[in-house]
């Protein structure tokens, strides 16, 4: 059931687990330290409503935090059983959203902010902009995206948004963009036109769903899913001063030219 849902919908939520809860409780304390660290001030954007927090948590390559429990639970078991070994994990991203989100990001155009507000800033992770014309290419080909909530919030506190089934539309679009190009040159391919057309198709044909979870739970998203973050709801709740805190692991595929488009 879980594997079928993941392959068809592009995401999967896992029930509360004591091991996952232990990791999240420990990570929450370190997350609070990371947000307060003056060295991380540049990560607070969108007029103070989004802490981007890339590589903000000091976990080791197994995902374990200093003096904390191992990274474990049903989500980790599913990944290792159905997708493959975790490999060496990067330092987790700490995504924190505060009341009032979204507000314009520093340097963001009116059109870009409108897309953030009206389309949840929908994107596929690893597809980056380059050049003054804001073209796109694949620079960070991820294996999967794992979200681990660190504090309890209401479902309307800027949850993850996923367009179900979008991974297959995006897969076809990237395959078309790379057609006839040697795999070792894929990193240089301008995918803008294919990517933009595929996003439009996704918005027209795929259900938009919000994915909410509490500490101890987890969710896994397919690497090619179009996804974003919903606005903070008018009546949304989160612990005072903390905002909505989620840790994300998004390891990159070392051999992405042979797996990124073809793996389930």
Q: Please, could you describe this protein's structure?
A:
With 264 residues, the chain is an alpha+beta fold. It has one domain: Jelly Rolls (Sandwich). Helix content is 30%, strand content 18%. It has seven helices and twelve strands. The chain has a seven-stranded antiparallel β-sheet.
Task: Lay out the secondary structure.
Layout: H1 2-9, E1 11-14, H2 18-36, E2 44-45, E3 50-51, H3 74-83, E4 93-97, H4 110-119, E5 127-130, E6 135-138, E7 145-149, E8 160-163, H5 166-178, H6 192-205, E9 208-211, E10 218-221, E11 227-229, E12 244-249, H7 256-259
Protein name: Phytanoyl-CoA dioxygenase
Q: Which series of helices and strands comes N to C?
A: HEHEEHEHEEEEHHEEEEH
Q: Kindly identify the CATH topology.
A: Jelly Rolls
User: Segments where pLDDT lies below 50 for 5+ residues?
Assistant: none
What value does the average pLDDT take? 96
Protein name: Phytanoyl-CoA dioxygenase
Descriptive key words:
264 residues; 7-stranded antiparallel sheet; globular; 12 strands; alpha+beta; 3-stranded antiparallel sheet; 7 helices; Jelly Rolls; single chain
């Amino acid at each position: 059931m879980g594997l079928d849902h993941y392959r068809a919908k592009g995401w999967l939520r896992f029930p509360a687990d004591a091991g996952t809860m232990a990791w999240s409780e420990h990570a929450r304390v370190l997350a609070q330290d990371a947000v307060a660290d003056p060295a991380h001030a540049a990560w607070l954007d969108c007029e103070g409503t989004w802490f981007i927090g890339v590589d903000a948590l000091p976990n080791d390559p197994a995902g374990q935090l200093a003096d904390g429990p191992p990274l474990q639970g049903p989500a980790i078991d599913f990944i290792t059983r159905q997708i493959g070994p975790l490999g060496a994990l990067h330092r987790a991203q700490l995504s924190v959203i505060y009341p009032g989100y979204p507000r314009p990001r520093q340097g963001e155009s009116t059109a870009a902010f409108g897309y953030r507000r009206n389309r949840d800033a929908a994107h596929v992770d690893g597809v980056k902009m380059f050049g003054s014309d804001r073209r796109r290419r694949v620079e960070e080909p991820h294996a999967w995206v794992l979200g681990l909530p660190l504090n309890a919030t209401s479902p309307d506190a800027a949850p993850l948004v996923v367009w179900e089934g979008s991974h297959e539309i995006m897969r076809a679009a990237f395959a078309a963009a790379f057609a006839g190009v040697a795999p070792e040159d894929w990193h240089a391919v301008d995918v803008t036109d294919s990517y933009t057309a595929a996003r439009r198709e996704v918005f027209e044909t795929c259900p938009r769903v919000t994915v909410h979870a509490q500490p101890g739970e987890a969710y896994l998203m397919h690497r090619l899913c179009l996804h974003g973050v919903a606005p903070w709801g008018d009546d949304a709740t989160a612990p005072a001063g903390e905002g909505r805190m989620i840790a994300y692991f998004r390891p990159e595929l070392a051999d992405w030219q042979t797996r990124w488009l073809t793996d389930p």
